[in-house]
Amino acid sequence: MPKYKTLLSENTYARAQEYLAQLQAGQQAGRYLQQRLAHLGLTSLTVEMLLEQLMRTKRPQIFAESAVAGNGSDWNLTELGLLGDIAIVAPVTFFDNGRHQNPDVHNPPFTGMLLFVPGALLRNGCSQTPADWNEVVTADDQIDKDAYFRLCERRLLPSFLYANEQMRQQGKQAFITIPGLGCGMFAGPFQGQLGEKLKRTLQAFVFKHAASFTHIRAVYYDPYRECQNERINLDGLSFLVRPLTHGNEAKPQLCHPTAYEESGDDFSGCELVSVVAWDHVSWPGNDFYVGSRATDDGVKGAATDVTAVMTGIPGNYNSHTFQYEPPTDYKNWNEVIQNNNIKIDVTQTLRLFPPS
Fold this sequence. Notes:
- The chain is of the alpha/beta class.
- The protein has helices at residues 10-24, 31-37, 47-55, 64-67, 77-84, 133-136, 145-170, 194-209, 295-302, 306-311, 333-340; strands spanning 5-9, 87-96, 105-118, 173-179, 216-222, 230-234, 237-241, 270-278, 316-318, 323-325, 350-353.
């Protein structure tokens, strides 16, 4: 049984159900999903089985903003929309603090959780419509604030509720770090503008659901160089905006929670939970499967044992290369996946939120 969980909203599950009915009625799937469904009988396919086959179209490493057409030649927009709404959460060990280069190594390492959540994908390097464009961009090429909030809420809420549930069961509080999801290359023509929009969205999201986040102590938003330092406290839950380049260089996103304490704070009873700027079509850890400690996804893949959680094959953290390396028989984690024919599991790992 895998240690990770696959999470999605009930709304997304209903959309998957609708897509399955369309496929059973003769609609054509994207090429990658067609290939996966070729050996299966569509009539007996369940929603869970469809989601599993869709997740198995993901590549361990791929640049979603440049290498995805989304016109059916690989995936279609319906499939990309579903993939963007599916999160993977993994219990992990943190070996370093997540600075992209020359990180501080944790001695000893400590445990926590990674939440892999795709941001809004608004760039397409194949001159096609980007995956999330039609949902969040208006006819006059502006971000629709309400639609953007709904997309972020739908994608983040299952992971936040799951983290809250796990902390409640363990008698702990979560300290959640979150990067500028979708604010970099994914932002396309909106690059440099989304950090502030995401800040307002996250603030509204935290306020709206604060009553359900009983075991989340703080949300620490790091949009790198966008936004200004800011802090809002709400009934025991703190929302901190702390861009890394604005005096917070010593606090990248994988520090022990106590490292983020400011005057009057006590985060000693917290567990680190870090949201990862994931994408629609890669495995959790993306760039790191080919040995690259780059991008939020790749850095958090290298700094933790998430590759072992995803593959079931343990490796070792190398404090000289700052990478969690596979067994010496393999040159990288992509080779581990290929040589052992490892697949993403959904049928055994799926959780819907909010729970029925």
